[in-house]
Amino acid sequence: MSDKVAVLVAGSWGTALASVLAFNDLEVVAWTRNAEQAKELNEEHTNNRYLPDIKLSPRLRATTDMGEAVSGAVAVLIVAPSSAMREVSRQLKTYWTEDMLIIHATKGFETESLKRMSTVISEELGCEEGSVVVLSGPSHAEEVIRKCPTTVVVASSDSKAAAAAQDLFMNAYFRVYTNRDMIGVELAGALKNIIALGAGMSDGLGFGDNAKAALLTRGLAEISRIGVEMGANPLTFAGLAGIGDLVVTATSRHSRNWRAGSLLGQGKGLEEVLASMGMVVEGIRTTKAAHAISEKFGVQMPIADQLYHVLFKDRDPRSAVEALMGRDPKTEMEIMPQEIWEQWHT
């Protein structure tokens, strides 16, 4: 069996995951559209735009030819931005074969269709959605690349596919669990970016730890509420893809979403924030998608709703917080429908 894995594309997270695979003695070929980036990866073994001052394994090489990257690979890891996932998957269709394991590590929705990334991939490849594996969890590229202990989850309704992905990535510093709840893992990974934006905004406003703790807790309730409505296992949100990823993304200096939110809280405009970041901030696109999803399913997502108005309707961040605090009294605990509980516990 081939020990080659293709990685599409070579951003910070794609490069970090490619480095995990290279550490595991796999042949790793990263695809990029940028010829200069490919040259740097091959000759200097660096990717300084995304991961400065890091020396990469010689087992990781790059190419601008997707066919070269994918040909003969046992697995293809897709780490394209959510906005580019359909285009990249469509290009992959030319080279993909049914015996290749497809894994994706992108946290977001297709904004126009509101579809999850596994749905987009399966539509373009013509494969079963359940055969796609989702990799998610609390994992900053800046720490994974330095081999800091990290634990993630791989999810698929195909247990053999999930186990195969687990085997590819598992090593002494990168621990991998499996989960059969693809929907929950994808939703948690995408929606926590919204709460991370809110946490950064709270910090930018100078509101302190009490406010941020409340935001994370009620944010997790919000994610769980819409997740269960969309068919997820409620327990997933108490795991690595849920609370684990939420905590790391909403509290870390490495988090683009937290940094963007902090700048918004300090009074910067959205265009100014995006220009200063220099990389994709998935939480911004996801906020727009979540606003539409909450309306589609009739599920209240008050934090996402207020962030939507800050980002796209010029609402002042401080007035958004006042609106959240001034909502009608609620009970904290929500009753889960018996049929949902039974579905995931039988």
How does the major sheet shape up?
8 strands, mixed
Helix content class: 40-55%
Structural class: alpha/beta
Poorly predicted runs are: none
Strand order of the largest sheet: 3-2-1-4-5-8-9-10
Number of strands: 10
What best-fitting shape do the alpha-carbon axes yield?
globular
The protein's oligomeric status is single chain
Q: What average pLDDT do the residues reach?
A: 94
Strand residues, percent? 5-15%
Tally of helical segments: 16
Rg, nearest Å: 20 Å
- The SSE string, one letter per element, is EHEHEHEHEEEHEHEHEHHHHHHHHH
What distance lies between the first and last C-alpha atoms, to the nearest angstrom? Answer: 37 Å
What structural keywords apply?
globular; alpha/beta; eight-stranded mixed sheet; 346 residues; 10 strands; 12% strand; two-stranded antiparallel sheet
Structural write-up:
- By secondary structure, the protein is an alpha/beta fold.
- It is built from 16 helices and 10 strands.
- It has helices at residues 12-23, 35-43, 66-70, 85-92, 117-125, 141-144, 159-169, 182-204, 208-229, 240-251, 256-265, 270-277, 282-297, 302-312, 317-325, 338-343; strands spanning 4-8, 27-31, 60-63, 75-78, 101-104, 109-110, 115-116, 133-136, 150-155, 174-179.
- The strands form 2 sheets. It has an 8-stranded mixed beta sheet with strand order 3-2-1-4-5-8-9-10, with helices on both faces.
- Helix 7 links the parallel strand 9 and strand 10 (174-179).
- Helix 8 (182-204) runs parallel beside helix 10 (240-251), helix 8 (182-204) runs parallel beside helix 11 (256-265) and helix 11 (256-265) packs antiparallel against helix 12.
- The longest helix is centred in the middle third of the chain and has 23 residues, at 182-204.
- It is globular and about 60 Å long.
- The mean pLDDT is 94.
